[in-house]
Specification:
heterodimer; A: mainly alpha; elongated; B: alpha/beta; 6-stranded mixed beta sheet
Chain lengths: 258, 345
């Protein structure tokens, strides 16, 4: 590895430590980030679950867990946007830049911290879902693949969110983005199979990235064959990450060199 | 007998800490800097003095490599701000108007983080030589002690007072032992005691040979701290010199006259000072009896306009007002369209 890359990695680690400390102390946001997945899981399983026939012959909890995971990952990752706007509001970015630290380590710190936060929430959802009857049938490789895909999804959304944080001018606007991203799993196969939706929605719901990721994660956890879905899902995540990191790089330069 | 002109003997003189030539910058169509020239020798304390919107922050951001000038060139610590940005950044620190510390970290955590991100002393330009954990801890402790913040080291910055926060901010900027320090309005919003403390810090830094470049709206601050003062108004320098030189450039007395309503409107455009509520106008003068009498006659030939007068010794504020008023406005901008500096959020 080149010297610059090594130095960038060490800066990114310091930045991640910072972001983690900041998120640990933002108690309100942390409680929300952990309580929301738990509440959503319980709501879907016990409030709606009884009335939903997914046509898979399994209890609803088995169907919905991947959906809840992605819904919460989206919500958690989108909070990166707020963290970035908060940074830009104060003078800290200028201080970092005058220490000759580039945009990438600063943003990567937020993204890595977001991934760590989300994995914590994910573990909580898994633990609770086991307690209420979720019985996955995945092989160890399937587990690894499912978790890897979740990490890829969280990373992609966190970078997207970081780019949005650089684009919008206020934490409030960043909050709007969080809402939008949280909404995306509803028109997907997260909670009900897409073939139960009206035809005009089915096209979008079946093809959109959230559905691809959910179908792949669900298949992997239940030990079912997933065909090419896993690769399609991974390609979506890689594509979103590539576009988002490029956009974030450009926006950072535009934003800070003004 | 003249020695033949030849190559200068001895080592080449060190370049000045800051040299700027013809810096220009516009945001959309508002020209914020209109050709700024500056030279600051090494080890000096230099103040850039000007009202809000004069272009002070923009000048500092260009010199600190955070913004690029549209035209002109500048070197800081001998390095070009455009071509050698990294080298400049290694040699400087910037403390801006917005505190650059995290509210939700403790003072010690903030300093340790900055230390970790700072190149090890003596590491040259090697980028991988960031400071290690133990060294960062030691440096943070040292700075907390120096800025009287040890007692609050493990408290969240959120609980700090304005003065403590500013001290921590300054401490954070000194982690890397910079050669040139930029302070953008360091005492704005501070109470008098915190301001005094900050002045002491600046004097200490200067005593250790660090070059300090500060912007301020307060003449008193520039007068107390700076070796030289550049007065910036409407994006150009309107005066430069030591505080004493600047005071000498304008009349050392001011004649205040209370005038009638009619005379107020006639004379106001010529006055250096205006207080409409009391219909008082101030005019610079040398203060001699003959001079004052002549001035009174010139202002009020038929002896009906002036009701009362008083003579004062000129203050630095008079100097400032006189200097910043002698330039024609950049464009006769309607109210509210003054060349506001962007807030850089």
């Amino acid at each position: 590895m080149s010297e610059a890359a090594l130095s960038g990695a060490s800066e990114a680690l310091t930045m991640t430590g910072r972001s983690l400390r900041l998120s640990r102390r933002n108690v309100d946001a942390l409680i929300t980030a952990l309580a929301l997945p738990v509440l959503l899981l319980l709501i879907f399983v016990y409030f709606f679950g009884g009335a939903i026939d997914t046509g898979t012959g399994t209890w609803y909890v088995t169907y919905v867990v991947p959906g809840v995971l992605l819904l919460c990952a989206g919500f958690g990752a989108a909070s990166t946007a707020q963290a970035v706007t908060e940074d830009l509001k104060g003078g800290i970015i200028d201080r970092f830049r005058s220490l000759d630290i580039g945009g990438t380590p600063i943003l990567a710190g937020h993204v890595l911290a977001s991934t760590a936060r989300n994995l914590l929430a994910t573990s909580l959802v898994f633990a609770l879902s086991f307690a209420i009857g979720f019985r996955p049938a995945a092989s160890p490789a399937g587990w690894l693949a499912a978790i890897g895909l979740l990490v890829a999804y969280i990373t992609a959304l966190s970078w997207l969110s970081a780019a949005v944080g650089l684009l919008v001018r206020s934490p409030e606007a960043a909050g709007g983005f969080t809402f939008f991203i949280s909404f995306l799993p509803y028109p997907s196969s997260a909670f009900v199979p897409t073939d139960t939706m009206p035809p005009w929605l089915q096209g979008f719901a079946t093809c959109q990235p959230v559905t691809q990721v959910i179908e792949a994660v669900r298949g992997l956890l239940l030990g079912q064959p997933i065909g090419a879905t896993g690769w399609v899902a991974l390609a979506w995540c890689a594509g979103i990450t590539a576009v988002a990191t490029t956009a974030a790089g450009l926006l950072f330069r535009r934003r800070v060199l003004a | 007998m003249c020695p033949a002109p030849g190559p200068a003997s001895g080592p080449a003189p060190a370049p000045p800490a800051i040299r700027a030539v013809g810096l220009r910058k516009a945001y959309r169509d508002v020209e914020v800097l209109r050709g700024l020239d500056l030279t600051v020798p090494r080890g000096a304390v230099h103040a850039l003095l000007g009202p809000n919107g004069a272009g002070k922050t923009t000048a500092v951001r260009i010199l600190a490599t955070l913004t690029e000038a549209d035209a002109g060139s500048a070197t800081v610590a001998g390095h070009d701000v455009r071509a050698e940005r990294s080298r400049v950044r290694r040699a400087i620190s910037l403390t801006g108007q917005f505190a650059a510390v995290d509210e939700m970290q403790t003072g010690a955590e903030n300093l340790r983080m900055m230390a970790r991100l700072t190149p090890r002393a003596g590491a040259g330009t090697s980028r991988s030589a960031r400071t290690g954990r133990a060294a960062a801890r030691a440096r943070a402790a040292e700075l907390l002690d120096r800025f009287d913040l040890s007692y609050a080291a493990d408290r969240l910055v959120r609980t700090y007072s304005g003065g403590m926060r500013r001290r921590l901010d300054l401490a954070a900027s000194l982690v890397g032992q910079p050669e040139v320090i930029f302070l953008d309005e360091p005492t704005t919003g501070l109470d008098p005691r915190s301001r005094q403390e900050l002045w002491t810090v600046v004097r200490d830094l200067s005593a250790q040979g660090t070059t300090v470049f500060l912007t301020t709206q307060y003449l008193e601050e520039a007068d107390r701290l700076a070796d030289r003062i550049s007065v910036l108004d409407g994006g150009t320098l309107v005066a430069e010199g030591t505080a004493d030189e600047l005071k000498r450039r304008v009349a050392d007395h001011r004649l205040d006259v209370v005038v009638t309503e009619a005379a107020y409107h006639r004379l106001a455009p010529q006055a250096a000072h205006r207080t409409p509520e009391t219909r008082t106008l101030g005019f610079p003068t040398g203060g001699g009896a003959r001079e004052v009498r002549a001035l009174l006659d010139a202002l009020d030939p038929d002896g009906t306009g002036i009701e009362r007068f008083a003579l004062h010794t000129a203050t630095l504020d008079d100097v400032f007002l006189t200097l910043t008023r002698t330039t024609p406005a950049p464009a006769p901008a309607p109210a509210g369209q003054r060349a506001e500096e962007p807030s850089h959020v």
